[in-house]
């Protein structure tokens, strides 16, 4: 009975994932899960964690609300994983306190802007196979990136072959604007759509006029045939 009472007195947040090590760092809880062959983010991370290291694992995705219950979290290290997909609400619930987020050395080609722009944390995004496009350019302009790692954000793929293999900053310094390219593409698409709609309306009007003309011709021929019929009857 005393043992059962003792279990009830232990806070749920004090547990530690089996594959990790939980320590006190400068008076704050740190959860160290580096190089533990993890394929996903552990479910049982203590709620009072402040520093979370998940680097050098095999995590492939950060799902929505992955850290939502960790309201004290200030630093996340997800570097050197195999992350390819990050959901738009991946960091929902930790945006207010998070100070550092390391996503370098993964397999990230693109990230939904809403996943990172809500954060005030310093971001490390280097050494990923980025697709250089408008979303990444806007992220570079609007997010709080770690200045020491910005030069290592390189175009793995891009709309033009000449940009491939070059740092994104270097490409943008030449005057390239990926967002204007997208805007021109959208403008062309809108123009084509409007032209198709206009052609359809014109076609409908032409068919309508021809149909009315044919009806008028049929009604015009009918009265002229009446006298002939009447004379034949006499």
Automatic annotation (TrEMBL):
Chief location: membrane
Question: What does the UniProt entry say about where the protein is found?
Answer: Membrane
**Where is the LRRNT domain positioned along the sequence?**
15-51
Q: Quote the SUPFAM superfamilies the UniProt record gives.
A: L domain-like
Membrane-traversing stretches: 188-209
Highest taxon of source: Eukaryota
Task: State whether keyword Transmembrane helix applies.
Answer: yes
Q: Which UniProt keywords apply?
A: Leucine-rich repeat, Membrane, Repeat, Signal, Transmembrane, Transmembrane helix
Signal peptide region: 1-15
The Gene Ontology CC terms held by the record are:
plasma membrane
Pfam families found in the cross-reference section: LRR_8, LRRNT
Membrane topology field: Single-pass membrane protein
Cited Gene3D superfamilies: Ribonuclease Inhibitor (3.80.10.10)
Family label: Belongs to the LRRC3 family.
The protein, known as? Leucine-rich repeat-containing protein 3
Q: Organism, per UniProt?
A: Irena cyanogastra
